[in-house]
Amino acid sequence: MKVGIIGVGLIGGSLALSAREHISDIEIYGSNRSETNLKKSLKMGLIDFALKKDDIKSMDIILLAVPVDIAMNQLVDLLDEVNDNALVIDFGSTKYPICQAVALHSKRGQFLSTHPIAGTEYSGPSAALPDLFFNKIQILCETEKTRPDLLEWAQDWFKKIGMNLREMDPVAHDQHIAYVSHLSHISSYMLGKTVMEKEKDQAAIFDMAGSGFASTVRLAKSSPSMWIPIFKQNKENISETLTEYINNLNDFKSLLDNEKYDELYDKIKNINDMIYSAKKLIDLGAKNVLIKGGHLRSRIMYDIFLSKNEISAFKNKKIHTKNTHGTGCTLSSAIATYYSCGKTLKKSCEMAIKYVNHSIGTGPKYGKGHGPINHLSAIQINKKFK
Predict the structure, then answer these.
(1) What's the per-residue H, E or C state across 279-316?
(2) Is-contact 302 314, C-beta < 8 A?
(3) pTM
(4) 196 and 222 inside one domain
(5) d(Cα 63, Cα 128) in Å, to the nearest integer?
(6) Residue 88 domain flag
(7) Rounded CA gap, 110 and 154, in Å?
(8) Looking at residue 268, what is its pLDDT?
(9) C-beta neighbour count of 27 within 10 angstroms
(10) pLDDT at residue 381, as a whole number
(11) Domain range spanning residue 67?
């Protein structure tokens, strides 16, 4: 089998090592923008031959492991050139743009869009690791558009190298990855920048910095040439994520400035406990978990939604009332209702929480005990959800 790898760096080089171990009778061809890295890949034995344009037609598999902007520019031409039984797989960190780029291509069935949740802060062929993908998540997008025989081969190979496969819609992928990956890199870059600008005596920084600082800014060593195109392609999702993150930072700062340490304690401890508990339930076999945050004492309430692929926090202002009778039952019913209307489970939870919060806030306040919420509030808030 002839395998061509475009971009023999951390991901491409690690793919080469995995392919050589698990694919019999293999010849690996590779290309790299850097001639130095290409020579290094040959010398290290990651690849057997340099991949030339004329070789594309004879490849059985092509692995596209380059920055997402370059992948966008190369993918259409690759599909034009490959033979009728070849498979092209991309491994980029954004999915919707590249899936759209080939949506109408005549060889769309010979393309599989993936994203391995694996990597380090290092780059280049020297960073390649034989076990980089072992026990890591491999996200597959639009598998229904990939030819079944080619998809089966790819899934079998991914499983052989120890990857756990998950399928996701490309739009949902880009939304979620902005939170769990892209935001982490931005935070790392900005923390490093903030500290370096504030502390002119760099020696003092490194004398005082412990493992916590080192692990937080570790991602700042990642290549900007790889990450700037990712930020560009996923700009809208990242911008939304940053807005929420900045709002949380401002809220944290406000509590600190106003010496509201009890609220600050609750914010940190309770949310961590909720996430930990949700993860435990997932480990026990639950597919999705929603932890209600009504017990929190802070001004802002958080409800935590967790699945095997994502984590989300729904934020709402605390409503001071004793009229909360039946909120759990009502929330469950609302989730089921929205889900039956075709909403995703996450969206159903989000909308149900908004409905219940509005119902609490507009409660009829009957009697003197713990009264009911206003179930008719759905009529009042219906327009907000169109």
Answers:
(1) HHHHHCCCCEEEECCCCCCCCEEEEEEEECCCEEEEEE
(2) yes
(3) 0.70
(4) yes
(5) 15
(6) yes
(7) 11
(8) 76
(9) 16
(10) 46
(11) 2-168
Does 24 share its domain with 164?
A: yes
- C-alpha 312: how far from its chain's center? 12
Domain co-membership, 12 together with 157: yes
φ, ψ of residue 55 in degrees (nearest 5) = -80, -20
Q: Are residues 154 and 55 in the same domain?
A: yes
User: What are the residue ranges in the chain where pLDDT is below 50?
Assistant: 379-386
Domain count, the chain: 2
2-26 per-position pLDDT tens digit: 999 999 999 999 999 999 988 889 9
Q: Could you tell me the two tokens for 328?
A: 């759990």
Per-residue tokens: 300: 């802002």
Sheet containing 311-317: order of strands: 288-291, 300-307, 311-317
CB 9 within 8 A of CB 34: no
Q: What is the mean pLDDT of the chain?
A: 87
Query: Do 62 and 6 form a contact (C-beta atoms < 8 A)?
Result: yes
- Give the separation between CA 66 and CA 63, rounded to whole angstroms: 9
Looking at the fold, whether 141 and 206 belong to one and the same domain comes out as no
Residue 379: the pLDDT is 45
| 88 vs 111: CA distance, rounded Å | 5
Q: CA 193 to CA 187: how far, in whole Å?
A: 10
* Tens digit of each residue's pLDDT (9 = 90 or more) over 120-151: 888 899 999 999 999 999 999 999 999 999 99
- Where are the alpha helices (H) located in 145-300, listed in sequence order? 148-160, 170-177, 183-198, 202-208, 211-217, 224-233, 235-257, 261-283
Distance CA 13, CA 114 (A): 17
Q: Say yes or no: 126 and 221 in one domain.
A: no
